[in-house]
Amino acid sequence: MKAVEIKKDIYWVGAIDHDVRNFHGYLTQRGTTYNAYLIIDEKITLVDTVKDTHTDEMISRISHIIDPSKIDYIVCNHVEPDHSGSLSAILKYCPNATIITCANGEKGLEQYYHGNWNYHIVKSGDAVSIGKRTFNFVLTPMVHWPDNMISFMPEENILFSNDSFGQHYATSGRFDDEVSKDEALFEAKKYFANIVLPYSNQVKKELEAAQNFDIKLICTSHGIIWRSYVADIIQLYHNWAHNVTQKKAVIAYDTMWKSTEKMALTLYEAFVKKGYEVALRNLQVNHESDVMTDVIDSEYICVGSPTLNSEIMANVAGFLTYMRGLAPREGRKAIAFGSYGWNAKSVAHIEQYLQGCNYDIVASFNQQYRPTQDDLQQITEKTIQLIS
């Protein structure tokens, strides 16, 4: 468990979690990393820690570089336990170390760990010298907790970005150019869609602040470190935060006796005919967090369910609740559809959820029992007309 040198005397000393598959309801098929960074300078500084289940891994990596008792400062950019969970353990080695955090960070750490620790409180614009290097701090509250902040090291052009630009992505490579670029960008997109999306307005402010920095390296709290594709990931964050959509539709549905599925396939063909990229997602086999990754840049959101006991199918209700909670940006167009036997309630329920997302419902299709070819043709013609 050796450290990885990022730049001279700056090391990644985090932990790799290959096995985690769920993070707050977000499916993490590729695992994750908990990133921590050690800087050897006049004041030896540790930036963040790791989840408490991986404390030994972090301490082992630190011990390959220095005796952990020599740590002077611990920068805590975020209180959440996947970042701060090993603070108590590392402070047993260096009990006199000072924790550098913001006021909300101190409050959160005290409420989580009840430790009698030394704090140095910073606010936006503050700088702390550790010798040859300096940390410049910018508070980024609600990206995605009240205590969040980022820190920039101008002498090395490194942004310690906290959760921003991160990915739940466990790999043997530590840098973006050591892994598949497509995979790294996909996981960053999924991370934004499922964690950061509700805080897009705050992300805009963070991006404005970051414009003042000459960033050559982004050291994230999860996943790989960006060094070759820094401009790419910053541009994508700008697009996602500003609600930039593509010529794309996502169709999410569940079905009982294939009637709703026939409608979903008909919508699929209609969008394809109009040149749209289409993500067809049966919620029986597609996880809601993966579907949200499609939603983030789709112009059209189509949701379908049959009526079940005067309600919608549980998979559809779960997805709609999950999506509404992530507060996807308004301005999207939506289609509600479904089938029923004797109680035509499902489409009305879906419409209520979509209205709660501030989507513009451009069409609804409600079919009793099994649709005929004429019924499906009508859906096709109306959909094509709507998106022409």
CATH fold-type name of the largest domain: Metallo-beta-lactamase, Chain A
- Catalogue the unreliable spans: none
Total strands: the figure is 23
What percent strand? Answer: 25-35%
Helix tally equals 12
Q: Work out the radius of gyration.
A: 24 Å
Strand order of the largest sheet: 1-2-7-8-9-10-11
Please give the domain count: 2
**Taking all residues together, what is the mean pLDDT?**
95
Main β-sheet: number of strands, strand sense, barrel status?
A: 7 strands, mixed
What coarse outline follows from CA principal-axis ratios?
A: elongated
Name given to the CATH architecture of the largest domain: 4-Layer Sandwich
CATH H-level name of the largest domain... which superfamily?
Ribonuclease Z/Hydroxyacylglutathione hydrolase-like
| First-last Cα distance | 57 Å
Which class do the helix and strand fractions yield? alpha/beta
Helicity level = 25-40%
CATH structural class of the largest domain: Alpha Beta
Notes on the structure:
- This protein has two domains: 4-241, Metallo-beta-lactamase, Chain A; 246-386, Flavodoxin domain (Rossmann fold).
- It has twelve helices and 23 strands.
- The protein has helices at residues 55-63, 81-84, 87-93, 103-113, 181-196, 200-210, 230-241, 259-273, 288-295, 314-325, 346-356, 373-386, and strands at residues 4-7, 10-12, 15-17, 22-23, 26-27, 32-34, 37-39, 45-47, 73-75, 98-101, 118-121, 127-129, 134-139, 149-153, 158-162, 217-220, 246-253, 277-282, 298-304, 307-308, 311-312, 333-340, 360-368.
- Helix 5 (181-196) packs across helix 9.
- The protein is α/β, with parallel strands linked by helices and 388 residues long.
- The strands form six sheets. Strands 1-2-7-8-9-10-11 form a seven-stranded mixed sheet.
- The longest helix is centred in the middle third of the chain and has 16 residues, at 181-196.
- The termini are far apart.
